[in-house]
Amino acid sequence: MAEKFDNLEEHLEKFVENIRQLGIIVSDFQPSSQTGLSQKLNFMITGLQDIEKCRQQLHDINVPLEVFEYIDQGRNPQLYTKECLESALAKNEQVKGKIDTLTKFKSLLISELGKIFPEEMTKYKAIHGDDPPS
Amino acid sequence: MHDFVSEVMTEIYSTLFGQNDTQPPTGPAALGFGPGKPLPPMPTNQAPVAAQIPGQLGDEGPTLRKPGAMNEPFYLLRELPVGNDLTGNTNLITHYSLEHAFNKFCGKKVKEKLSNFLPELPGMIDCPGIQDGSSLHSLIEKPPVCGNSFSPLTGALLTGFRLHTGPLPEQYRLMHIQPPKKKSKNKYRHHRPQDPLPPETPSDSDPKKKKKKRDDDPDRKKKKKDKKKKKNRHSPDHPGLTGSQPNSLR
């Protein structure tokens, strides 16, 4: 999986570098630079062809749209990953707290009901068992 | 858990208010909430009272209230839901083996700018894409027309790329502005030719970068003055353009 990303990354870096060199040639163009310019233009087309080939290997990769918003704002997309992990952990802790509280309430309720309705509670425990799934 | 509570409450209600009376009382007093009326005494033997309830109310109440043979004396006692192994009770980050990723992104400080993620990318990438129309969002909303295969340019097509000699006009020189080069651990080391213009760094709020800028400013100013003189000799005349550059260092 990482190999196909490395392959795409390599092609993209070469493409960007080619474009940058093309911009340098164009910034101060000389007649002797014409052949170099033509070469760079054809390198740009072959670069696009290589990137197009990489696309087939990555057809199953999904990127969340929120990451694009980070990039459009000029922010590091790793911040999105960080915020996802932090919110997942926070939600995990919140749900765990609810589960623990309800488990304690259930055990307290069973014990108190057992004091007031002992016979019914023994019948209930016989039906559902002493340790019902939490 | 909710089912258990509802079952117990139903049973308590039926035990408290489903008495041995043959005729059910009418009015608010029937529920035992009338003023001054004490609560009915709790029956000592719960099972026969509960067993009598379907006999008493079976003629008047709906058939839903008949308990099953398995779950006597409880009404509407349902099976508990099958316990799910994966709940919020488990640490999901550990479960999905994301500790390394968590320590990497949340343990260390992640830098804010996009140029810290892509240090080798030239151009002003920290600016919002909406300003220069290079946003990914616009690319999704209005995808470019594509479908034709990429074919190399022939000699006849390349004749369209014959350019005028000389440097670019000032209005197009913003394309060469790059952020300051940073140390990167990129495994693909490219030997880059030198740019014709010195890198014009954008204004940063980092005080360390400001100190470096102050040291280099007088040298840069001299170099830029010399280049300006050379360019003014060669640049064509453009209407409406002033001599000041859009990004000038202070």
UniProtKB/TrEMBL annotation, chain A:
GO molecular function, one term: transcription coregulator activity
Keyword annotations: Activator, Nucleus, Transcription, Transcription regulation
Gene name for this UniProt entry: med10
Compartments, as annotated in UniProt: Nucleus
Descriptive protein name: Mediator of RNA polymerase II transcription subunit 10
Source species, domain of life: Eukaryota
UniProt-listed GO biological process terms: regulation of transcription by RNA polymerase II
Family per similarity comment: Belongs to the Mediator complex subunit 10 family.
Complex formation: Component of the Mediator complex.
Residue intervals passing through the bilayer: none
Biological role: Component of the Mediator complex, a coactivator involved in the regulated transcription of nearly all RNA polymerase II-dependent genes. Mediator functions as a bridge to convey information from gene-specific regulatory proteins to the basal RNA polymerase II transcription machinery. Mediator is recruited to promoters by direct interactions with regulatory proteins and serves as a scaffold for the assembly of a functional preinitiation complex with RNA polymerase II and the general transcription factors.
One annotated Gene Ontology cellular component of this protein: mediator complex
Record bears the keyword Transcription: yes
PANTHER family for the chain: MEDIATOR OF RNA POLYMERASE II TRANSCRIPTION SUBUNIT 10
One Pfam family matching this protein: Med10
